[in-house]
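Running co-folding for (2R)-2,3-dihydroxypropanoic acid.
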Amino acid sequence: MEQIKWRVHNPSGGKRVVVTKELPGERWLEFLTRAECRVEICTSANVLAADEIKAAIGTQCDGAIGQLTEVWGAEMFAALKAAGGKAYSNYAVGFNNVDVDAATRLGIPVGNTPGVLTETTAQMAVALTFAAARRTGEAERFLRAGRYQGWLPTLFLGELLWKKTLGIIGAGRIGQAYARMMVEGHKMNLVYYDLRPNKALENYVAAYAEFLRSQGEDPVTCRRAERLEDLLPAADCVSVHTALDETTHHLINAPRLALMKANAILVNTSRGPVIDEAALVDHCRQHPNFRAGLDVFEDEPELKPGLVELENVVIVPHVASATQWTRQGMASLAAANVAGILMGYPVWQKEDIRPFLEGKAPQAAPSILNAQALGIPAQGD
Ligand code: DGY
């Protein structure tokens, strides 16, 4: 077995923080250095197994920054607690890999990294939408294979989504950003499914509709679907933006795929298990005009048998948040979460996390999921 490699930053720091992967940028290290932490960073590329992380935590560890590819369950938090751990942050906005309740029971604050992935992830959802609609993967493979013999009236005909119906599942930050890009950029009518009405999104679309009307154009519309079964048959393109938990596991399954239009587009930049991937493979096989754009997979990094062979599926390897700005921002937020808790700071309560990304950062932990349950005060309390 290959030996796991580590590097140490600020070796004289009095507190010890374990970081299970190298992170981009420098600012995140400044947060931890200022909090007097010795930072031990795993520089090996492989995903660490639970035992390897526990070994790294060892007998004295004040905090940890982990990855969405690792399971941070009760056992891991018990190890962290036993080593004197006081803080954990996921290097992700999603936290389906973290047992927040177990951490809360042990009194360990858990951070995540919201706000810096929003536009970046929405941008990838848009990229996948149009790549699927306009068959760019298929067309590129065709061209690279030397099969192009000249322009043809029927070569790679795709779908024009302009003024058609967009369905989004989950109207949180990222779903909303994606909806704005598609509604405003492509004049699509919006149907959204979310447990709660999103008045900000509805008002945004209404204001845009008013503007279009003032220009003598057809207005766009927005409605909330009470049930997924109302959204799926209506939409020409459906994009998934929900968190993964037991209520959203296989939310898109064979019966629900069967409700979608035969030439619809399904996009997923949230978490793989929200879609029953084997059912999707079957559906795409049976409906060649149905298209999917996927950034995430049910058994990452494995793909369900048959998926890679499908011409009507565009796939990228979980890179929706992969821009320098976002990944450095995620590092800053994760480090500021751990450093903030170790410094005894309150929790930042504004949605806007940009003050953490440049200049003098607020004396607060930017996003602690279980702050309320642990009675950590919010800034300004
Ligand atoms: C997240 O932060 O949850 C994303 O999936 C990372 O790309």
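Result summary
Residues 68, 92-94, 117, 320-321 surround (2R)-2,3-dihydroxypropanoic acid (CB under 6 Å).
Residues 324-342 form the longest helix (19 residues).
Job closed.
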